């Protein structure tokens, strides 16, 4: 038994490492294609984060979230701010705790998870980071971000439900983690 397995973390197979690398690359590409200004960006990165959390669990999803945030920010030419990295880590951890090792992912579980992330990470943490970076009024940006999250969270819930309950996604999990 290796050190990671003592703590309940599965060792990665060659296929697992390859899949993580591909998902990290997809995440970096998706970070480049966002809609909206910095304070209300919309992207599809949450899909990749969800899949990593579902397939690989808390440890690997947190590591990939941190690496993806730091690399994505560095590649964009913007300065790295550890607060947003922390937000990415917390979001990945929440998805992992909700979805990892679950045979069936119910719509209720997805709604609760998405709402926790929308409120804790998107509204409170990220708005705090924006306030710290740009010295803006927290509540003014909170209200703008609240409207954005009221629109995007239901869409994310539907997308996550469709992705996690799509048979080929479940089959990949079975093939990678025999």
Overview of the molecule:
With 178 residues, the chain is mainly alpha-helical. The chain has one domain (13-173): Arp2/3 complex 21 kDa subunit ARPC3. The chain is 78% helix and 0% strand. It has helices at 3-6, 14-32, 45-76, 82-99, 107-134, 138-164, 167-176. Helix 3 (45-76) packs antiparallel against helix 4 (82-99), helix 3 crosses helix 6 (138-164) and helix 4 (82-99) packs antiparallel against helix 5 (107-134). The longest helix has 32 residues, at 45-76. The chain is globular. The two termini are 17 Å apart. 27% of the residues are buried. The mean pLDDT is 91.
The CATH class is: Mainly Alpha
- CATH T-level topology: Arp2/3 complex 21 kDa subunit ARPC3
What is the CA-based Rg, rounded? 16 Å
Q: How is the quaternary structure best described?
A: single chain
Q: Structural class of the helices, strands and pairings?
A: mainly alpha
Number of distinct beta strands? 0
What is the element string, with H for helices and E for strands? HHHHHHH
User: What overall geometry do the principal axes of the alpha carbons give?
Assistant: globular
Report the uncertain regions.
none
**% residues in beta strands:** under 5%
Overall average residue pLDDT: 91
Number of domains: 1
Major sheet description = none
- The second-level CATH architecture is Orthogonal Bundle
State the share of residues found in helices, binned by percent. Answer: over 70%
- How far do the termini sit from each other? 17 Å
Task: Please tally the helical runs, counting DSSP H or I stretches of 4 or more residues.
Answer: 7
């Amino acid at each position: 038994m290796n050190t990671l397995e003592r703590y309940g973390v599965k060792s990665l197979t060659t296929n697992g490492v390859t899949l993580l690398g591909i998902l990290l690359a997809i995440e970096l590409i998706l970070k480049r294609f966002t809609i909206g200004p910095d304070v209300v960006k919309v992207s599809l990165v949450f899909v990749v984060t969800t899949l990593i959390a579902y397939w690989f669990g808390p440890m690997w999803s947190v590591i990939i979230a941190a690496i993806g945030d730091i690399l994505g920010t560095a590649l964009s030419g913007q300065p790295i701010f550890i607060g947003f990295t922390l937000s990415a880590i917390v979001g990945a951890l929440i998805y992992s705790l909700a979805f990892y090792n679950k045979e069936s992912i119910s719509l209720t579980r997805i709604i609760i998870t998405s709402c926790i992330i929308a409120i804790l990470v998107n509204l409170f943490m990220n708005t705090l980071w924006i306030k710290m970076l740009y010295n803006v009024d927290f509540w003014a940006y909170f209200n703008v971000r609240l409207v954005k999250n009221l629109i995007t969270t239901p869409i994310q819930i539907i997308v996550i439900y469709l992705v996690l309950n799509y048979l080929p996604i479940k089959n990949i999990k079975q093939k990678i983690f025999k």
